[in-house]
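Section 5: illustrative case.
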């Protein structure tokens, strides 16, 4: 079981995808094998999480969609979103990020993230600014491809990350490739979690650049909203880092820790996580192009929306992004660690147990979902997807991704600007995806398109 379920996820890279191993896992159809194996385990073992021992670590493999719902709803107590593995990985580039923060620091950092990213609103308050940044970068990419150029992953990712830096900091950051390159180096080490020592020099340079960009953040950018929230949440007196009120000590008040070294908002660490997450958004966006060139009726409707719909509200394109993440999850494994003993149906698990949720198993459960292996954007418009506790492309609950609305909005705007008035075609050896029976894995490194 270990070799069929866990090793393929570790091999392709949990924090940064490895191209060679991603291609190998896809070629072996490892994701479909894992889904089939877990279905068989549930039939034999029942609904309770399956106890495991992984290198001396207490763990449990979640087999029921209802149990996924319990884990996510009962976060952070008694199921912490942190845990040794996540802390070991994320500390390489965001040691004070909200997901790995302790009980005292997490509420303020979570609140700052929510204020900046605004979950629960389909259209972000700064949606017009986001649309402008997406339009500018998509136009630059279209111009680069105007002489019958082929759109491959490298070219798409470079453009998408430039757009992400614009959205996060402002237009001045579009050319700041060094920050993204440093993050890539740190994420490569983070694949090894706590086994690899942190590259402290690279981490300090990266966080220093993020901090400097955050201090320069333009109005309408996500970082500007975060800094404003961080400053507003600082105590007005009795705090050694509270600032002088004239804006000159913003780094001391908001970025460096506020009311204590360990409990401040730490904007640079929160922004570091956004930049990391935008890489997953880039993968989802590129795979969305594969869905838009598929033989599914939903693809035609979404392309028509890209070509003719005005404004910021692009429901079918947003649903396409969510379908991309459902069909091929960018978060391969969701982990919650119990902070105390927990009782299930027939099982009792001690404190410190890592509960493992294999996303693709629940997203592709054909025994439960009639659309498991099809591109069905309508499930995100009629409530079917939200009604399924096992479908968690952006997680949910108290520790759910606060960008669950921002990312589909941003990607949909970028895709529209890229595709409008152009004929999109897939030109790699894979050919168009079928209307049903979609592959369980899709190697984004191998995709090629023409516009």
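Designed sequence:
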């Amino acid at each position: 079981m270990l070799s069929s379920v866990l090793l393929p996820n570790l091999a392709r890279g949990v924090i940064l995808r490895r191209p060679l191993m991603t291609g190998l896992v896809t070629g072996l159809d490892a994701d479909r094998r894992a889904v089939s194996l877990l279905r068989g385990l549930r039939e034999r073992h029942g609904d309770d999480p399956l106890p495991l021992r992984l290198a001396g670590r207490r763990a449990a493999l979640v087999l029921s969609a209802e149990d996924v719902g319990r884990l996510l709803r009962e976060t952070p107590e008694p199921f912490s979103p942190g845990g040794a593995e996540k802390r070991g990985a994320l500390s390489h580039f965001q040691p004070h990020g909200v997901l790995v923060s302790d009980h005292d620091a997490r509420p303020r950092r979570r609140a700052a993230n929510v204020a900046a990213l605004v979950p629960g609103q389909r259209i972000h308050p700064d949606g017009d600014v986001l649309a402008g940044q997406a339009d500018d970068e998509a136009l630059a990419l279209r111009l680069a491809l105007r002489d019958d150029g082929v759109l491959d992953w490298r070219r798409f990712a470079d453009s998408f990350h430039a757009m992400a830096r614009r959205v996060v900091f402002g237009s001045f950051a579009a050319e700041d490739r060094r920050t993204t390159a440093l993050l890539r180096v740190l994420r490569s080490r983070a694949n090894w979690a706590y086994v690899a020592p942190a590259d402290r020099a690279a981490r300090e340079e990266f966080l220093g650049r993020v901090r400097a960009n955050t201090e320069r953040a333009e109005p309408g950018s996500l970082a500007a909203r975060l800094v404003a929230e961080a400053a507003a949440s600082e105590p007005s007196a009795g705090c050694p880092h509270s600032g002088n009120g004239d804006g000159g000590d913003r780094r001391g008040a908001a970025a460096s820790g506020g009311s204590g070294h360990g409990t401040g908002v730490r904007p640079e660490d929160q922004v570091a996580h956004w930049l990391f997450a935008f890489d997953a958004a880039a993968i989802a966006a590129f795979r969305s192009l594969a869905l838009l060139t598929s033989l599914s009726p939903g693809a035609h409707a979404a392309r028509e929306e890209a070509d003719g719909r005005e404004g910021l509200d692009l429901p079918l394109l947003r649903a396409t992004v969510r379908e991309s993440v459902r069909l091929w999850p960018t978060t391969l494994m969701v982990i919650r660690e119990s902070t105390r003993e927990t009782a299930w149906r027939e099982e009792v698990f001690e404190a410190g147990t890592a509960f493992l949720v294999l996303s693709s198993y629940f997203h592709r459960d054909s025994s439960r979902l009639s659309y498991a292996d099809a591109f069905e954007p309508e499930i995100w418009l009629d409530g079917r997807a939200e009604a399924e506790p096992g479908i968690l492309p952006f997680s949910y609950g108290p520790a759910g991704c606060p960008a669950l609305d921002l990312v589909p909005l941003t990607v949909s705007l970028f895709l529209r600007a890229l595709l409008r008035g152009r004929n999109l075609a897939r030109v790699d050896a894979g050919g168009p995806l079928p209307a049903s029976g979609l592959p369980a894995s899709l190697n984004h490194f191998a995709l090629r398109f023409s516009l």
